[in-house]
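User: Okay, second chain of the day. Same drill as before: sequence in, structure tokens out.
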Amino acid sequence: MENREEWLARTFVELADTLVADFDVVELLSMLVERCAELLDFAEVGLTFADVGGHLRVMASSSERMRLLELLEVQNSEGPCRDCYDTGQPVLNRHLEGAEDPWPVFAPRALEAGFRMVHALPLRLRDEVIGALNIFTSEPRELSRADASLAQALADVATITVLQERASKHSTVLADQLQVALNARIVIEQAKGILAERLDVAVDEAFHLLRRYARNNRVPLSGVAGLVITGDLGVTGLISEPSGRVRRKGSRPAG
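Assistant: Same drill. Structure tokens below.
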């Protein structure tokens, strides 16, 4: 079985391999969320970035349940993610029971969804905060110092990557670059919904199909989503990829 050191080495090699010319920001962030969820196998993970006006937007989530709660956070401007972004400081080991005072909308809904404890880590480089990494757990399990440090390291990778992309291209301000990524995310969400309906699969499974096709064909994830929306890439093309077994909604994974 792979130990933590081997996992970290593999993860950072994969991240380095992703950082090629014209890399796909959405795919990179999706990979970071996926790896962080692997690291903290008891948690669900999500990433939010700030747009031009400083409003947080959901960029990546390890599950549909996580994504919906992150949307609730940003729509109501409350929750661990918002606090973390506003202060630039981590929010760690916050029990949702009794958290209705600071988070009157978010806390009850998160409890209803089955979560019991939340954490958030800033996407920050020195004084610049560009978003937050959310970590939600279904059990009241505290995040250890070691786990928090490793999760923060992954958040730092996301931050440095986006900031380095801006510096290397000498392009427009960071907010403009993030807006492009946010627009791409909207297209991806639309494609996920289309695939989920056409194939009668869960939204998470639809996203897996999009990512697999993008990886196998070395094309941007948003580009694949756009082809699905326009009808230039049909369902047959997606499920005919290697390992193209599709799980129907409600079915159990093999194993």
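The CA atoms of residues 201 and 249 lie 4 Å apart.

User: Thanks, on to the next one.
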